[in-house]
Amino acid sequence: xxxxxxxxxxxxxxxxxxxxxxxxxxxxxxxxxxxxxxxxxxxxxxxxxxxxxxxxxxxxxxxxxxxxxxxxxxxxxxxxxxxxxxxxxxxxxxxxxxxxxxxxxxxxxxxxxxxxxxxxxxxxxxxxxxxxxxxxxxxxxxxxxxxxxxxxxxxxxxxxxxxxxxxxxxxxxxxxxxxxxxxxxxxxxxxxxxxxxxxxxxxxxxxxxxxxxxxxxxxxxxxxxxxxxxxxxxxxxxxxxxxxxxxxxxxxxxxxxxxxxxxxxxxxxxxxxxxxxxxxxxxxxxxxxxxxxxxxxxxxxxxxxxxxxxxxxxxxxxx
Length: 319
Description:
Elements: E1 2-3, H1 7-36, H2 45-66, E2 69-78, E3 80-87, H3 101-115, E4 120-127, E5 131-138, H4 141-150, H5 159-171, E6 193-199, H6 209-218, E7 222-228, E8 234-238, E9 241-245, H7 249-259, E10 263-266, H8 269-277, E11 283-291, H9 293-315
Parallel strand pairs: 3-4, 3-6, 6-7, 7-10
Antiparallel strand pairs: 1-2, 2-11, 4-5, 8-9
Helix pairs in contact: 1-2, 2-9, 3-4, 3-8, 5-6, 6-7
């Protein structure tokens, strides 16, 4: 506990000490006066002293309240960094999720970004066969939404590349998989960071996905995956050819499980919106100062009231 005006604590101690001393002096004089007049008090000790003890106890509590006491309370809140990673491969133009997989993912992610509190920095990453950070994590969620709306489908899919670039964004340094037999790089520990991957899960090459997910897990970065597409799938036209594409849930589930995240399927716009609403970001606690003047004042008032009522009832006077 801290005090805005700590000098008043010394004042409270002095005034309380003087008040107690004055009470004992007054009681001694009253006792002497009654004895000189031949009266003997028939009241018990509790009736004689309890009302005044309550009044005296209220005094230091009231004075401490005037010192503006404050306590720091741990308040849970969602905070940290969330990186929204969009699969922009050709397969994301399939229309088994209307109007298209990518368009539906963009709409749901934009709503998600707009609803985040100012304590959450939102970044945007687009990945095909390569990954590119299109918006660094920022508290300006309007900038993140604008970046979400700019992504367009093209190329293949490398989920491993997306994870590595995402880790590089979070840690502030390039991240790559270690060579066989070499030790994994020390990326530090980033428990307040989350990567949310919107993808149909169809991997076409690039760095090992599970290896990249294990690096994320070691760095404390959780990956939430949202499967955009259906098991029945659809077709897309690439270079004049019609290619079939379907949701690969196994890969997306593995990525999430390795990092302690959750996989959520989204087979239509409605379930996609539900999936983004259910994305579990990190809860942290921040200490906030809470002023305790009111509780101290309330306690002092209660003691004053109780002491005054007992004094009037038992003695017919306040002091």
